[in-house]
Amino acid sequence: METPPLADVIINSFDGYSGEVRKAARFVLDNPRDVALLSMREQARRAGVQPSTMLRLARQLGFEGYDPVRDAYANAMRNPATSFERKARDQQRLQNLGGNQALAAKIVASVTRQLEALSAAEQLVRLTDAATLLARARRVYCLGLRASHPIAWQLNYILSLVGDKSVLLDDIANTGSDRIRFAGKDDVLFAVTVMPYTQLTLDIVDYAHKKGVPVVALTDSPVSPLAKRATITIATTTESPSFYHTMTPAFVLAEILAVLVAGQGENETLEALRQVDSYHASLGTHAATRPHPIATPSKEVQ
Amino acid sequence: METPPLADVIINSFDGYSGEVRKAARFVLDNPRDVALLSMREQARRAGVQPSTMLRLARQLGFEGYDPVRDAYANAMRNPATSFERKARDQQRLQNLGGNQALAAKIVASVTRQLEALSAAEQLVRLTDAATLLARARRVYCLGLRASHPIAWQLNYILSLVGDKSVLLDDIANTGSDRIRFAGKDDVLFAVTVMPYTQLTLDIVDYAHKKGVPVVALTDSPVSPLAKRATITIATTTESPSFYHTMTPAFVLAEILAVLVAGQGENETLEALRQVDSYHASLGTHAATRPHPIATPSKEVQ
DNA sequence: CACCGCTTGCAACATTTGTTTCACAATTGC
DNA sequence: GCAATTGTGAAACAAATGTTGCAAGCGGTG
Questions:
Q1: CA distances from residue B213 to B104, B183, B206, B209, B257 in whole angstroms, order as listed
Q2: Measured between alpha carbons, how far is B68 from A91 in angstroms, rounded to an integer?
Q3: A6-25 residues touching B, CB cutoff 8 A
Q4: B294 CA, C9 C1': Å apart
Q5: Nearest one of A9, A113, A111 to A60, comparing CA atoms
Q6: Which chain B residues are within 8 Å of A242, Cβ to Cβ?
Q7: What tens-digit pLDDT sequence spans chain B (302 residues)?
Q8: Number of helical H runs and strand E runs in chain B
Q9: Boundaries of each SIS domain copy (chains A, B) (predicted)?
Q10: Which residues of B touch A87 (CB under 8 A)?
């Protein structure tokens, strides 16, 4: 809460208030957090004012009652990162939009907020730890079924660009997980699942865990069933304003993880990327948007 | 609130809890701020749990009632360094730590910025227009190869939850695109590719376009080769501080698109979701975190 | 099968909440 | 000085809150 929501408004019209209302306003200005955390009556008590006075203040600020005021302060505390003004602006725009566009905007806003949370220090530490573990592994087994498939696939895909040590545990004819048999202590199993947890994923993780294979878990909670078996657990959220949960935060995490792992490869990574390029050039995989993609292959790899 | 007050305690004894209490504990873990800001009953509602269960959780944690718990969380919110200081501190820490964490943070920041741009007005219009087109289509063909696979797959997956009109143009033995032969004017082809554009994707889009099949293109530029053939083009960025471009913005767009399309299904969507649930219940696809998932199947679908 | 302990949902409880109402006091204008 | 307006305090209200107690349900044991 960089600048408390109503601070400006209150300060401007403060002189217009009288006696008791000023006391109430002072309290709000001085204890913005308490506005959200305490009941109105309790605030009145601490401000040395009657409950009615609190209400009068709220009304003078243009609100229906005191709850809207508390909500405003509560929201400011919920996501300290984004400023109140911006939120207000977004809110404003939301109301001007149609239902579908509003929903779309809401989802974007929600996901954005969740992404911001990913850069918390502990998360970064976990990520880099996991990256190190994966980078040192002889083989990386990627496992993500159903809704978690894109995440596991993405990690495997990027890792496959820079080497051949990644194995995607997915295949037709129900043989997808068979290769986990060859995993050992020197390998790592990267497993993804979120609520409702896919039973097969848990089973495979269980199997690997019993065999002593280190597990990097990407899931939705530190108390997820995956976390129990995991050496390192990366937790993220999946909440969304829509009927379907979002896998986007997990998706970025996988991308970042992959990039970090690849980065530890140094020279081998560069060499591999060069090979990928010439390979695809030979096969004509990509449309030729220009003569030949030679320089800085890094940015061009798909 | 860097580490929420009771997080450790809850995580440690989580396995000892049972059923409903776990749900309550999950909520507390996932929404620490709401613990302080909302009434217990409201939290119970959001956690999908009886108020009594919240109380039982509090008792199991060694508290007299639930208010002490809320107080603990409230205090944690009162004191913490202001977000500004915290940001500065995080920044500081980032520089002290390895370059890997800095890179991770940079990627997150970059993607976050790109996501914010997605809620621009025109984007939203394009999205909803595309959603309407897809919703009205008899059949939706999803096409995304190589790096674009997760995006096409995700759209197809979500659409498959709520109906059977989506077809993923991907298969083994190089037969992935064969089914596009059956597409006509009443269908829609959803195609994804970004630089460097996959030749095969362009070819298939070309084929469909010539047959009069409307095309919704998700790509990285309004002048991408895809855009030329498209009825509606949704453009996004793929830039990333790392060697590998990010597919995350495209991924959210696909998720949102899917949700919007599903939303236009109304009753059929709800019915389909119920079916998905009972189907998976019969097969035991998901781990049973509780006796039986009855109410509000919507949130539980994976 | 009956029994057990344990968990879960429900309805009821006394408080506390935000709000309304109204009488009284203070202030203002004439 | 008096009337009118405004500000204040206290009591009363319905609604919502945290909490309690109990009955029904569950799975396992003898």
A1: 41, 7, 10, 5, 19
A2: 34
A3: none
A4: 15
A5: A9
A6: 256, 259, 263
A7: 567 778 888 888 898 887 889 999 999 999 999 999 999 999 999 999 999 999 999 999 989 899 999 999 998 888 765 445 555 555 555 555 667 888 898 899 899 999 988 988 888 999 999 999 999 999 999 999 999 999 999 999 999 999 999 999 999 999 999 999 999 999 999 999 999 999 999 999 999 999 999 999 999 988 899 999 999 999 999 999 988 999 999 999 999 999 999 998 878 888 898 888 888 888 888 887 543 333 333 344 55
A8: 14, 5
A9: 130-267
A10: none
- In three-state secondary structure terms, A140 is strand
**Which ranges of chain A does DSSP label H, i.e. alpha helix?**
7-13, 20-30, 32-37, 40-47, 51-60, 67-78, 84-96, 99-118, 121-136, 149-161, 199-210, 225-229, 248-263, 267-283
Axis crossing angle, helix A40-47 with helix A51-60, rounded to the nearest 10: 100
Task: With beta carbons less than 8 A apart as the criterion, state whether A159 and A258 touch.
Answer: yes
Per CATH, B7-78 and B121-265 having the same topology is answered no
B121-265 has CATH 3.30.70.120 classification: no
Cβ contacts (< 8 Å) between A149 and chain B: which residues?
150, 153, 157
Peptide bond into B80 cis (omega under 30): no
Q: Does B94 touch chain A (CB under 8 A)?
A: yes
The architecture in CATH of the region A7-84 reads: Orthogonal Bundle (1.10)
d(CA B39, CA B35): 8
Residue-range domain boundaries for chain A: 7-84, 121-265
How many angstroms separate the CA atoms of B187 and B136, rounded? Answer: 8
DSSP B264: T
For residues B115 and A116, the answer to whether their CB atoms sit within 8 Å is no
Place of tokens 């109503």: A6
Direct distance between the N- and C-terminal alpha carbons of chain A, in angstroms, rounded to an integer: 42
Q: Which fold has domain B7-78?
A: Arc Repressor Mutant, subunit A (1.10.10)
Q: Using an 8 Å Cβ cutoff, are A263 and A140 in contact?
A: no
User: Which residue reads 């087994």 in tokens?
Assistant: A141
Task: Give the E-state strand segments of chain B in sequence order.
Answer: 140-144, 166-168, 188-193, 215-219, 232-235
Cα–Cα dist A153/A143, whole Å: 8
- Both tokens of A37, joined, read 């955390």
Beta bridge partners of A144: A192
State how far residue B296 is from chain A, nearest Cα, in angstroms.
10
- Tokens 């020279």 appear where? A267
